[in-house]
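Help! Submission page says 'invalid entity' but I think these are all valid:
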Amino acid sequence: MADRFASVDDVIDRLRDVAYLSDRGIGGVVFLADRLEKPVLVEGPAGVGKTELAKAVSGVTGSRLIRLQCYEGLDEAKAIYEWNYKKQLLRIQADREHERDWETVEADIFSEPFLLTRPLLEAIRAEEPIVLLIDEVDRVEIETEALLLEVLSDFQVSVPELGTIEGKQRPMVFLTSNNTRELSEALKRRCLYLHIDYPDLEREKDIVRVRVPEIDDALAEQIAKVVGSIRNLDLKKAPSISETIDWARTLLYLGRNEITPEVLGESLHVLLKYQSDIAKARKELGVEAPAAARK
Amino acid sequence: MVDPKLRHRFEALVEFAEQRRIGSGGEVTTLTGDPTMLDVLQGFVHELRTAGLPVSMTENLDAMRAVEHVPLDDRDTFKAALGATLVKHHGHAKVFDTVFEVYFSMFSPGVDGADTDGAEGEADFEQLRQAMEASGAMGQVSNEELARMLLDALMNMDREQLRMLASAAVSRYAGMEPGRPVGGAYYLYRTLRQLDADGLVEQMMGQARLDDEVGEGAFDERLAREDFEGRLKVLKELIEAEIRRRLVADRGVEAMARTLRKPLPEDIDFMHASREEMHQLQRAIYPLTRALAARLAQRRRHRHHGTLDFRQTIRHSMAYGGIPIEPKFKRPRPSKPEIMVVADISGSVASFARFTLQFVYAMQSEFSKVRSWVFIDGVDEVTRFFDEADEIGEAIHRVNTEADVVWVDGHSDYGHAFETWHDRHIREVTKKTSVILLGDARNNYHASQAWTLGEIRKRARRLYWLDPEPRGYWDTGDSIISDYAPYCDGVYECRNLRQLQKFVADVVEA
């Protein structure tokens, strides 16, 4: 049992110190992940702070973050380890003169110096405290998911030439998914599940205040309200938390203390990235396009 | 004056806390050390399984381990612990929430997000005691005063106050009687009607205007209205929770759980979905089509290597003294899949048709080469409606009003529709095309013209049929699905998301 956190409140407080505002749901799952030594599978819409959570946890626990970014076609050689065959080849060529028998050569070229560690193996062999982030795990094919299972349940990998390598510690592991496909039951069974949704009004307001400290309360509240209202529309891409923060900064930079329809009209493109979404938000909220765009 | 059920709850809570104190000695409580608690938890897991959630043995054990680490009084964390270990699909969260409410309603006054740390047990008692006093004292309060207090609480968004008022309102207006076989919805309706819930938003708006809290423009008004509607929703949830708690106290946990059981989103029948369920389905369809698109794209890219790229291989071998260590391949250039969807939108499949159109819309926004037609006894192409529309509602409206699908009488005639489609479009069907037909094959005893499907099958890559009727109804009455089935690569029963998912998976494998 690891004891990185004393209690759920400890998790929440310390995350707040690094400007990550959680709630009891998030804090509770992080706390349990620590106590039960289980990986956390984080799902939710894009831009609600899934990756950010892993970074924040690594920040507060003073751990190094090791990140495996998933993509289609990710395989063992890129996720776990690979033999540096270019180096091996050079070695064999260099050995030609010495007339060494094959066994010695083989033992030699399949040893540590020729091993290229990839994120998962690196995480397992790490001496110092780490947090492992497996980002966008839904992007790998279902067959590749199996590669992760050994790491997730026992925190070890098997390299045929070297045997099984066991982790020296149980780090905290976060997997994120944007839900582009259903993950396998086997993977889900090994993880704690955390669904992060867009924050409610209060939390979003707090996030804005923490991330943009210069902003005043009334404006932060208005920002949270407007963003919440925009998210209620049926959009291609709802504004993410980072877009909310960008918008808050923009308003500050423009010197606006209040959100009027005109202010929203001129800065809507910070929140929404599709022209059709912007048009729809304008229509629904009764906001006119800025003068320049109308011409 | 004190509600006897409330007293009962209070006593149960005291008893429970007593046991905890004896067992804990200041440390984290080990809930599972308490046999009654273990029973409750196992009953809870059993109910989740009965409701259709796939809770495995490992997950059950994980949950038991997890709750040992959280203080029970901290309801949100307790819930998070159970949720994180037992529920691994977001779509199942709603079912989980309901079952949780039923099983653990007695352990807390039910305020989400309440500040419960430190001496949380005591705080709970204090709250409950106050609530009891309040509900006792409420007896003297007139209905008008109650309404006034409610409006104040909503304006200040004082959750604690709201919860107490919700409880008082239920005592006063719901007219709950022990043993009465009436669902919670009925009591909710009665309470809300008495409180004039529909008028509350207007009242809040009026109050806000008086207090000068809301600006003049339409924009400000809209924001304020949304805010108030959100608050009203909180009130409704509190009332609902209160009613549920009382029903649980009256009927027992298991009976209550049984009456509240609802199908999981993936099991909702398209043909009989309610409006709200339809909305849920609509949200669920997008990830599914995206998955279909993603899988098809992946297969295109990874299916097989192209031929050996000789020049690249030699060029690359230079780095290793001319030994071609890494063969290089040409990238395969697969063709984009083309999909043609032909859907029945007649009355007999009306709600299925709405779902179908949503599916088509979602597909068209993911795939570039999707074409769609709808038919009743005539057939018309509707691709343009979906391409031009910004949102699904608009597209469906145009399909329903503008598509020319009636030939004689507006009763399904698959034979004629297929024949017409065949004459117009058969030349556009190629080896790259997958054709998907949607309908119940209820042909009103017209000629089937099944040969048209044979022709399509000959030219197309794949031909599938999705039938929204239960398999047992196929070929009964005027359904002639088996006339068409021999020409299809697959005929699928497609009544809910689960079956649609299976179809998508099969198509991707094929």
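Support: the input was valid. A stray whitespace character was the problem, and the output above is from the cleaned input. The CA atoms of residues 184 and 243 of chain B lie 7 Å apart.
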